[in-house]
Amino acid sequence: MTAFLLGILSSLATSAVLLALSLLRASRPLWWLTAACSWFTGTGLRRVYRRQSSAERSMAGDLVRARWIKVMAGRGNILTREAFAPLWSGDLSPASIQILLPDLHTPPGSWLDRRSQDVARFDPGFTPGLLRSQVQANTDYLAQAARTQRNIQLRGYDLPHTCRVIATDEVAYLTFYSDNAHGRNSPCLHAQAPGLLYTVALQQFETAWANSTQTLTTPQN
Fold this sequence. Notes:
By secondary structure, the protein is α+β, with helices and mostly antiparallel strands. It has 7 helices and 8 strands, in the order H-H-E-H-E-H-E-H-H-E-E-E-E-H-E. Strand 5 and strand 6 (171-176) form a beta hairpin. It starts with a helix and ends with a strand.
């Protein structure tokens, strides 16, 4: 009888552990745990997305509420997708939109070219000059979108391509790039203001902005 009871208890304990692990693997319980740890440590980390593309739905909701928006990207594809579409159509009108993309006017050997070489090592379809042409296409897109907007500033930066920053007055999405994967396959950190990670994201952006060159400003009437 004792062995029988121990077997039942052991089975119940195993089931409880498996249930707890399955819950933690689900997004929402894991986010709750992350938020609790963030509150205790002061980092401001709310969520961790395994791939930055998974954060776009949440990002779209944060952009709707934003009073201002700051973006620093490695090529800027996110700016042409659904999350940012309401900004270019005029449905949303934050006080300012500051955008940093790699400087296209830098000579060969710039950080843009170095990043392109890094990507070519793990992506055989990435030919020399492809990254530069992608940045150019996104810059042209933003230039067209800015024709009807007064609050967009686009600048170019020639600094190491270490991360992507998308920040508002309330949150920041921070993706650290690696030398062996596209940014879209990298984890994305969702940080709340105030908090250490949010502050780091803004500092990264402001440092790049202070050392950037003017590429596009909207016409003044």
